[in-house]
Amino acid sequence: MTATSMPDDQPQQRTHPYPRHWEADVVASDGGIVHLRPISPDDADMLLAFHGKLSDRTRYLRYFGPYPRISPRDLERFTVVDHRSRVAFLAMLGDEIIAVGRYEGLTPDGGAAVQEGAGTDKPVTSAEVAFVVRDDHQARGLGSILLEHLAAAARENGLSRFEAEVLVENHAMVRVFREAGYQVKRAFAEGVLHLEFDVDPTEKSIAVRDSREQAAEARSVANLLHPASVAVIGASADATKLGHAVLTNLLLAGFTGPVYPVNPDARSVRGVRAYPSVIDIPDEVDLAVVAVPAANIDEVMDSCLAKGVKALVVISSGFADAGGGGKVAERRLVAEARAHGMRVVGPNALGVANPAAAVRLNATLAPALPGPGRTGFFCQSGALGTAILANARSRGLGLSSFVSAGNRADVSGNDLMQYWQTDPGTDQVLLYLETFGNPRKFARVARRLARTKPIVAVKSGRHTGPLPSLASVGAQIDESSVQALFEQSGVIRVQTLPQLFDTALLLAYQPLPSGRRVAVVGNSTAVNLLVTDGLLDEGLELAGDTVDVGTQAPPEAFAEAVRSRLEGADQPDALIAVFVPPVAVEGTAHANALRDAADGAGIPVLAVFLAAEGIPAELSVRQADGTPGRGSVPSYASPERATAALGRVTRYAEWRDTPVGEFVVPDGIDTERARRLVASFGPDAAHELTDPEAVELLACYGLDVVTFRQVTGADAAVVAAEEVGYPVVIKTTGEQWRHRGDFVGVRLDLVSPDAVRGAHAELSRLTGSDEVYVQRMAPKGSSCKIEVVEDPSFGSLIAFGLSGMATELLGDRAYRVLPVSTEDAKRLIRAPRAAPLLTGYRGTEPVDTDALEDLVLRIGRLTEDIPQIRSLALNPVLASPDGAFVTGARVTVGPVPDRRDTGPRRLR
Fold first, then answer.
1. CA distances (Å), origin 877, targets 253, 327, 336, 665
2. Which of 449, 520, 720, 797 could join 774 in a cystine, given CB atoms 3.0 to 4.6 angstroms apart?
3. Cα(319)–Cα(299) distance, integer angstroms
């Protein structure tokens, strides 16, 4: 691509602050980290060095000629930019530039835009874009990354279009533009392709971005969980030291690659040759486990960076978990690691594990791992990690991988979910969460993952919040927001670790149910009855009568009763088998018989064997390595736990069968007009819009408020009633009166001037004010409230509920995370407990729910497009068979909040 030419008499540029918010750490397609930042004049020498390392062909493809060296004039032009009409990004690895991307603004006549401040009045709305990647870093997706970040900077600066000139033989660069997801126009002349495209995100470009992000982050985690070699820094012969435990666990697990102890004071540790420093290890090191005091971390980092270690697992504590200077040390650790392309697990982590036979990695403090399986487990708490692993092992739950990330300074649960989405060895995901690093991204990634693989999560701090030491580790979210996030994303939420394993065992070894009908076969009438109660409590149905084979039934009779229910004409969607051991009778034979009867059933079968929990050997279908496989029957120690686990899994199966919905743009939206209107309010602190301002803004998105006037005095009220048309309603302007459930501040169905004067007099005596709203009467209906509420982590949530004192008192509102799909809108208005009042409760005529859903979609679109909206309430909305009518609105705007999951790809 050509470099945009500049006039010889380049004027002095206007000084703009360095846009530090453009800096970003990004995962390349090979899983390595690259740091992006805007260029500065101080980068001149590095740019010359970068140019000198380009091959002749790469320089030819970029500059359309040999261009062996950068002239002083071009060097100044390349490094001195205004960050507005002329922008350049550097991709850095350590102290070296590995790629450069830039755009040069163009005037409407196609000429090059001069630096700002030159006195020209020509607007800059488009720019020529170009980038070049060092030969040894090509094919890492850096061109796509640079294009994303340049496009985001252009949009921020008011540019709307990119152009590019590309040699036709530059196949890699042509592919970058072709596959970016933009609508590209092409023209060809004399071996050069001229490309043009708008830089506003499209549905396709966002999908491309997310797909590339998932692939890159999955690759980075794969590098972490499949190392070819491991170094233990701080390995020790002292059994009380962390380094001793990690090294011992690596060796006992039989890691398939070489293990290198690092200890400057020992020639060997546990019989394995030790090295004074990582640098002294003769071979490459993929993973380094750090178990040295936090005070020594800088020295360790220097050696790891010099060695080119690919990933770090920091077991040591004393960082952000300790507060004070530990937070600074942690940030410095991650910044240094990322600058050199390295991922970090921790600090304060229990470690990482991959029990697969081809890896056998146990780089944790846990002495024993569960066997290999198909369950991925992410845990934030190092303290709980060992107990969690022991619990999984005792219950027979095999793992595909395990990561305890501690402070999550870098690698987080979002990264692991990206990996598990495409990991063929993982069928389900378990999460133990204390805080969220990037909740919006969690919602997006979890929703996609849960469509193919179930996610079961425990979220601690439901009532108390996180521990003080975790306050800086991630975002603490309001409980209602967490519940909305999980419900919308299809995450199976459980309250306790035992519930987590109860649910995981069923998902790991049995198929998903296709419905709610459950058969019960057992040898105890009393326990069968408890199972029935539990099923009904979970909203499940009993498939026919329970079958009681009697307390003395032999194994063959027990198995035959199970088989007959599974193979009968009226096949249930699931079956629970109950066995209470009679006196002097072991359950082994009955368990073997049940396992054989359930083999190949095609529906989930679970057991309530009161003497067994988990996957006992007798209920296990053994794989070649002796571990439980698909078809094993999970056993529960009580009926309540069995039915609760089945209820959770059934609801998840129903969610997965529900269509995703579409993220539509409703008709009649004028986004540009709305943006201009909000911009006219100024960038000051949050303030509430006046009624006319709110009505105008809402109208840009097809949200019409029933016609009203705000007036003072009875005569003015009568005039307003004539203007809006009878019948009318009069309301006080004070919200404390207007929104009361007893309607004391409202007078309805006024059909004449005398009625208006009488109502005005009553309200004036009540409130002491002559000011009222006069509004045309909307059709009578159910009073609802649709709200956008600000969440410090998500940015915004949309809430829906019916109006009324009982609803407010009981908190009967439902929430959804933005953006909302058509299916999200449908579920939202049906989620409150009072929602049956909208759909024909006790023979009433159902309201127009399509109209309510349309309001939700329009509000969601408005809030996503106009991030300055900090709160919005449509109250009341009268829902009737004739439609949904907005009779009151309140909007507050303010500075744009931090949206950590918008814009181009970047790490937290």
1. 63, 48, 54, 22
2. 720
3. 16
Number of alpha carbons in the 13 Å side-chain half-sphere of residue 483: 12
Distance, CA of 590 to CA of 606 (rounded, Å): 14
Strands 268-269 and 272-273: antiparallel
Q: Which residues pair with 869 in a beta bridge?
A: 893
Answer for the pair 509, 634: CB distance below 8 angstroms, yes or no. Answer: yes
Q: Establish whether the linkage from the previous residue to 727 is cis, with ω within 30° of 0.
A: yes
Q: Which of 532, 578, 573, 542 is nearest to 558 (CA)?
A: 578
Name beta bridge partners: 520.
576
Other Cβ atoms within 10 Å of 264 Cβ, number? 9
pLDDT in tens, 11-64: 445 557 899 999 999 999 999 999 999 999 999 999 999 999 999 999 999 999
Q: Where are the beta strands (DSSP E) in 481-573?
A: 492-494, 517-522, 541-542, 547-548
In angstroms and rounded to an integer, the radius of gyration of the C-alpha atoms of the chain is 32
For helices 822-830 and 849-865, give the axis angle rounded to 10 degrees: 120
Element (H, E) at 765: helix 753-767
Contact 112, 6 (CB under 8 A): yes
Q: What does the alpha-carbon distance between residue 343 and residue 310 come to, in Å, rounded to a whole number?
A: 7
Q: What is d(CA 653, CA 492) in angstroms, rounded to the nearest whole number?
A: 10
Of residues 742, 851, 888, 856, the one with CA closest to residue 788: 856
pLDDT digits (tens, 9 = 90+) for 487-533: 889 999 999 999 999 999 999 999 999 999 999 999 999 999 999 99
The amino acid at residue 619 is: L
Identity at 271, one-letter amino acid code: G
**CA pair distance 732, 743, nearest whole angstrom:** 10
Q: How far, CA to CA in Å, does 502 sit from each of 370, 377, 392, 506, 632?
A: 16, 15, 10, 7, 14
What's the whole-number mean pLDDT along residues 291-312? 92
Q: Find the angle CA(408)-CA(414)-CA(420) to the nearest 5 degrees.
A: 120
Which pair of structure tokens corresponds to residue 262? 């690092």
CB 617 within 8 A of CB 588: no
Lowest mean pLDDT among 309-313, 472-476, 501-505, 896-900: 472-476
Q: Which residue has the higher pLDDT, 357 or 477?
A: 357
Report cis status (omega within 30 of 0) of the bond before 582: no
Contact 346, 315 (CB under 8 A): yes
Cα–Cα distance for residue pair 832/829, rounded to 1 Å: 7
DSSP state string for 843-875: GPPPP-HHHHHHHHHHHHHHHHH-TTEEEEEEE
Two tokens at 113? 């835009």
Residue position matching structure tokens 């040069």 = 104
Q: Assign 819 to helix, strand or coil.
A: coil
For the chain, the straight-line distance linking the first and the last C-alpha, in angstroms and rounded, comes to: 32
Model confidence over 576-618: pLDDT tens digits? 999 998 765 677 899 999 999 999 999 999 999 977 889 999 9
410 CB-near residues (< 8 Å, 6+ apart) = 334, 337, 338, 343, 344, 345, 907
Q: What is the dihedral of CA 73, 75, 76, 82, to 10 degrees?
A: 130
Tokens at 8, concatenated: 């010889």
pLDDT in tens, 689-720: 999 999 999 999 999 999 999 999 999 999 99
According to DSSP, the β-strands at 126-133 and 161-167 are parallel
Which pTM does this prediction carry?
0.89
Q: Where are the alpha helices (DSSP H) in 538-688?
A: 555-567, 588-598, 639-657, 671-680
Q: Give residue 301's identity as a one-letter amino acid code.
A: M
- The set of residues, in sequence order, having a beta carbon less than 8 Å from that of 162 and lying 6+ positions away, is 103, 126, 127, 128, 129, 150, 151, 154, 196, 197, 199
Give the integer Cα–Cα distance in Å for 589 and 595: 10
What number of helices (H) and strands (E) belong to the chain?
A: 26, 38
Residues 404, 381 contacting (CB under 8 angstroms): yes
